[in-house]
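Dear colleague,

As promised, here are the two records you asked about, laid out in our usual form so they can be pasted straight into your sheet.

NAME FIELD: protein one
SEQUENCE, THEN STRUCTURE:
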Amino acid sequence: MENPSDTEETLRFEMANRLFFRLYQCANMLHKTGSRAVEAEGLTTQQWAVLGALSRSDAAQGMSVAELARYLMLSRQNLAGVVGRMERDGHLLVTADPSDRRSRRVTMSQAGRTIWETQAQPKIRDYYGLALDGFSVKDMVHVLHYLLLMLDNMKRIDQPDSADEDLQLVESFLRQEVTP
């Protein structure tokens, strides 16, 4: 006789494998099709994410490279290449941080802001519409809820001993607002 827990464990593994594979495919397709959506502006999805992060009101004074890397969940090394290309292309300004001269502060240049606001965002809005065709707002809330749960678990895997209680409280509160 088959042990029901073995069957459930096998099913859970198979479903997890499918879920993570689909997530991987979605990430690859986002990069491929999202970059195509904004290529006329000279942007990639990574650059789109950087401009999006810097366009938030919280980042009006720019962000340190470390803050930007944490926000985007990238290593500083991976971010450095993207920021360097964006600075070379005139989308970003990288200056010494006035409060800590050893740290660099990243801000959107006026040219970068113009491209972001007038050229890229309308195309991104259209891209979202196509990519989320058939999704209701409720569907999007559900997907966001589950992605946040998965992200929290992955953060615990990444940093098992460095839980920031204040951040966890804020994230918990935000999740309560979008919980279906």
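NAME FIELD: protein two
SEQUENCE, THEN STRUCTURE:
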Amino acid sequence: MRYLINWLKYIVLILLVLLTVVLVVLPAVFTSSLAIVYSGSMAPEMPVGALAWMEPVDPAQIKVGDIIAFNPPRMEPDVIVSHRVIEVIKGETLAFITKGDANEDPDWDVIPADNVVARVSFNLPDMGYLLLRVGKYTKGRIGFVLFIAVPTVLLIGSAMRDMNFMLSPAKRRARQRKKMMERRKKRRFH
């Protein structure tokens, strides 16, 4: 039973560290960004609550079928929409006609290349909701310590303890002797 609890503890700690790496470190390293899908306009490809992974893109590289993130011309500059490109307009300036997969009609505005923020590479359903919930708690110092720093320190400390045990011949011999004694006791009572 003790081994099962230890394994579960390790699995939870590893998942927390991996989640931190995926959501914080990887986007910073690869100049990508993450966005949470709040609208159903791209369902089922990008359901509400999904976490969209967006990478910077040269607008000249965008082709029909790509999902792009952009600032709509008639909205505030901090609003970002992700829709599929259905037509590329090459003229004096490069522009795109987009449409949400769940929408019947194309978007009203033609999207100038200057308004394109990124290309959506992939998305993880429901991970956006998880990020929102975890993000509420990790924004402060206490949340960061409880949800990120402490699990990381515990995981590293546990790994170091295991390595110390594996590398110490005296500790291995003592454990083998203890197991041998336990087996002998069991044999006597059976």
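A couple of things worth noting about protein two: Residues 2-29 form the longest helix (28 residues). The helical segments are 2-29, 127-138, 141-167, 169-189.

Best,
R.
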